[in-house]
Write a structure and sequence with these properties.
299 residues; alpha+beta; Nitrilase/N-carbamoyl-D-aminoacid amidohydrolase; six-stranded mixed β-sheet; 6 helices; globular
Length: 299
């Protein structure tokens, strides 16, 4: 019986942080917070999207491509050494320079020995006011494949991917044991406060839906605080914070504030997926013979 099985749990550290234009200071603060997670017993630590710098995609400026770096490169060396020292798995989010003029928004997973376990290039690239990512990032070409690590198979996706049930489902079908979303999302100041609250709730709700539909835990780590628009064309972005973790039925296990930097470690029961999927066998009952038209843009 499931109740007699030995529970397989991991402790996940989540870091919600403000960022400035001082990259060295951002990385130093991240290192301090990563150490705080390790002291609390974290096996895995997840950082927010593009954590080394401010969210530079508020404007279109080719000179900002100088922020990009190769993988492996300086950041994987820096954070890999930290992962090795602390004996943790670490999820990074970097501006990848793949070749001259070719860049990606890339999540990288560092193994406990400091090596690169794998990477995922963001597949869905937004182009909205304040989020001009199509100017900087080429869509990912690595597909939806979990990254094998010493703590399990991590279904790492990035920010805008979190709105797409197809991405979550494909990770689940490939054996992901949890869904992880480094994120940088917030409200545009021209939207009314009640509209921003509605958007924030929708953002969490859709990800809890991915958790329920796939019977998987979800880990979402967002940045927090106000960042100005360097072009001066808009009032800037107020990042929502509100990072959270769910169990495999969408139940909230941990939820951060909307306006503060915070560090939390949450325990995730990886074996609960088996129990949940036995009761809600969505993967069993899928009509895979009838879904061909989902590949069309619109019917």
């Amino acid at each position: 019986m499931i109740g007699t099985m030995n529970k397989r749990t991991i402790k996940v550290g989540m870091i919600q942080q403000r960022c400035t234009a001082d990259i060295a200071a951002n990385k130093a603060k991240l290192a301090e917070n990563i150490r705080a997670c390790a002291r609390q017993g974290a096996d895995l630590v997840v950082l927010q999207e593009l954590h080394n710098s401010v969210y530079f995609c508020q404007s279109e400026d080719a000179a900002l491509c100088d922020l990009a770096e190769p993988i492996p490169g300086p950041s994987t060396d820096y954070f890999g050494a930290l992962a090795r020292e602390l004996g943790i798995v670490l999820v990074l989010s970097l501006f990848e320079r793949r070749a001259p003029g070719l860049y990606h928004n890339t999540a990288v997973v560092m193994e406990k020995d400091g090596s690169i376990a794998g990477k995922y290039r963001k597949m869905h690239i937004p182009d909205d006011p304040g989020y001009y990512e199509k100017f900087y990032f080429t869509p990912g070409d690595l597909g939806f494949h979990p990254i094998e690590t010493s703590v399990g198979k991590l279904g790492v996706l990035v920010c805008w991917d979190q709105w797409y049930p197809e991405a979550a489902r494909l990770m689940a079908l490939a054996g992901a044991e949890m869904l992880i979303y480094p994120t940088a999302i917030g409200g545009v100041a021209t939207d009314a406060p009640e509209e921003q609250q509605t958007q924030r709730q929708a953002w969490q709700l859709v990800q809890r839906g991915h958790s329920v539909a796939n019977g998987l835990p979800v880990i979402t780590v967002n940045r927090v605080g106000h960042e100005t628009d360097p072009s001066g064309h808009t009032p800037g972005l107020e990042f929502w914070g509100w990072s959270f973790a769910t169990g495999p039925q969408g139940e909230i296990l941990c939820q951060f504030s909307t306006d503060r930097e915070e560090v939390h470690v949450v325990e995730i029961d990886l074996d609960r997926t088996e129990y949940v999927r036995r009761g809600w066998p969505f993967l069993r009952d899928r009509r895979i013979d009838a879904y061909g038209e989902i590949l069309k843009r619109y019917r």
